[in-house]
Amino acid sequence: MMLKTEELKQEIRRLCKEKDAIILAHYYTVGDIQDVADFVGDSLALARKAAETNARMMVMCGVHFMAETCKLLSPEKTVLCPDPEAGCSLADSCRAEDLRKFKQEHEGYMVVSYVNTTAAVKALTDVVVTSGNAKKVIDQLPEDAKIIFGPDYNLGNYINEVTGRKMLLWNGGCHVHERFSVSKIMELKRQYPEAVVMAHLECKGPVLALADVKGSTADMLREARQNPATQFIVATEAGILHELQRTCPDKQFIPVPPEISESGLECSCNECQYMKLNTLEKVYRCLVDEQPQIEIDPELAREAVKPIERMLELS
């Protein structure tokens, strides 16, 4: 018998207590998932939580690389992924075999990888970064360091601009943030002339040029709470609107639609279909079955965790 939404939430919380489990959720998951989670955050905050939790089991509601990161940081714990098909276009844009070859062609370069990468890519990396700490980490590396930065070209290009670095950039991107367009933002700015424009650093340069606030999802939440403005135009995955509205109920958040949606039809927001694969039913089922579990080859894990730990030290 299918359980109703509130019954599912109650059962999920009961199972968490019974099995000493916590639910971690990214801001891009659906509102019901965020509501039932023990902790909601961006990639950096989720990594920190995974490293410090005392729970026996973690359910990572996000995408596959996030569940891998949890397992790398807490190898002794059971890490569940509600849907193993929840991938990431950005992670897919940089395969380990391609990065290995690229490193061989650029001897003497260190590798800084965005957290949106597989464990195999992290194992070839010197230090990992997130959108929230990329500048802080890069600023602490030697000024004369030769750096390969990947896979997000837009984030790497932004960091080059604000630091004066000349990092060699991998040509990868997020399929969600690549769809935002200058023309759509300009239309919204005309419609809401007093609104603050916030854009994620995975957006293209021309989109960032229109933004009043450029940063991670955590940066956007902080700005919304602190800025006296009452209207915000938001250029990132639409799942963040749930937390924005929850923490700032008296303010208006206007999502920037994609230039063209994946269906080819006009829509009012820009969503990641991978994040939306996480559902209450799948969270409930994975807690009942304690499956699917994330497993990583121990030898690979030993190498892949090093750049993550280095990131946490520097940030």
Features:
315 residues, alpha/beta, four-stranded parallel sheet, 15 helices
Report what the structure shows.
With 315 residues, the chain is of the alpha/beta class. It contains 15 helices and 12 strands. The protein has helices at residues 5-19, 31-36, 43-52, 64-73, 89-92, 96-105, 119-122, 134-139, 153-163, 182-191, 205-209, 217-226, 240-247, 280-289, 298-314, and strands at residues 21-26, 39-41, 57-61, 78-80, 110-114, 127-129, 147-150, 168-169, 196-200, 213-215, 231-235, 252-255. Helix 1 packs parallel to helix 14, helix 3 packs parallel to helix 4 (64-73) and helix 12 packs parallel to helix 13. The longest helix is centred in the last third of the chain and has 17 residues, at 298-314. The radius of gyration is 19 Å and the shape is globular. It starts with a helix and ends with a helix. Residues 262-266 have low confidence and may be disordered.
Summarize the structure.
This protein is of the alpha/beta class. It has 15 helices and 12 strands. Strands 2-1-3-4 form a 4-stranded parallel β-sheet, sandwiched between helices. A 4-stranded parallel β-sheet has the order 6-5-7-8. A 4-stranded parallel β-sheet has the order 10-9-11-12, with helices on both faces.
